[in-house]
Write a structure and sequence with these properties.
This protein is an alpha+beta fold and 82 residues long. Helix content is 54%, strand content 17%. 9% of the residues are buried.
Amino acid sequence: MGAGLAVSIVALAVGAILKFALTVTPYQHGFNVHTVGVILMVVGGLGAVLSIIGIATSGYRRRRVIVDDGVRQVVTQEESNA
């Protein structure tokens, strides 16, 4: 889940660069770099929101079990529900 959030942040950053940091003249033909930047920012924002919702609702829990075997040896076992 964390990788999805990282990719979304990169898409947001690249989109912002294409929208705000590049200078293009209105007389150039082809695809509009600013429009591509806006699309990347929207997709990155939606991806980030969905990733955060997925992380928040994933139900990650850690359970720790301690067992005393009666011979003064304690066995610790940790389980994660990821």
